[in-house]
């Protein structure tokens, strides 16, 4: 694609602002078009960017200038928009999850392979200095052989602050599919793919009450599990314990910990790009913060687009995203069946990210 990348955004909701701020500071990436079912919302998104055209989805897909479709629609629409982009011969980068179901994700990847186009997918927070510094510490042997990890996300639910939270409690939502991709993508990046899962799940309330915005006080139905816990058996033999919940008030547990034979790491919030990595070594008192040693510095959502400039497979890529989705679906299946479930897919650990400013990379 040369030295620049032309992007068209489909979906101009709340998350699009974060992507737009990243695109602003990446000289290699240029926004050329936006589309949304709400045309006024698309106009608002495009207004600060002279020359960016507001289109309908069909026109954006047909525009020869658009090289990558940035798919920021709600999870239920991810697969449909991705398939339209692939059919138009364009690379596509999706907000997480890759699709609402594994079956839809497989369709997207199969169509992309047939068309010879690439698929990327959030979260690209795994490319930041937080997760990459932790990965480098593991790869450098600072904790010895990894044996276990924990990952914990506990919140009362997004309806407290989101003005239209229904999709969080519909298929494709819930704490596991909403927040799990951050934690699982990080675990796979650090510890490799998952082979088997066991789990349990619960749904504590049938409805949720919107806490802000024009629909404040309105109830939305809950059709997904809102507390999920499980054990992931990585192909390497590492055991990761996962808790994802929209039912708890708070937790003081670290977001992620990784334990090895000679040390333990506290890993920063995988929903962020940075944060301190703390190392406790066998025989040493206390924990020390590791110097930042890897990853995109000062990164924001959308930095995964950088890999579309040169990488055959984006680090925040479709294969990793599908494996993460497969792990999540397998965990829910295990929870409902009350038995261990083998994860059918696998993936390679994405290549590490050298320390540097993404705005300076091509």
From TrEMBL:
Residues covered by the Gfo/Idh/MocA-like oxidoreductase N-terminal domain: 5-120
Keyword check for ATP-binding: no
Gene3D superfamilies hit by this protein: Dihydrodipicolinate Reductase, domain 2, NAD(P)-binding Rossmann-like Domain
Annotated organism of origin: Nonomuraea antimicrobica
Domain GFO/IDH/MocA-like oxidoreductase: 131-266
Pfam families: GFO_IDH_MocA (PF01408), GFO_IDH_MocA_C3 (PF22725)
InterPro entries: Gfo/Idh/MocA-like_OxRdtase_N (IPR000683), Gfo/Idh/MocA_oxidrdct_glycsds (IPR050463), GFO_IDH_MocA-like_dom (IPR055170), NAD(P)-bd_dom_sf (IPR036291)
Keywords linked to the UniProt accession: Oxidoreductase
Annotated protein name in UniProt: Gfo/Idh/MocA family oxidoreductase
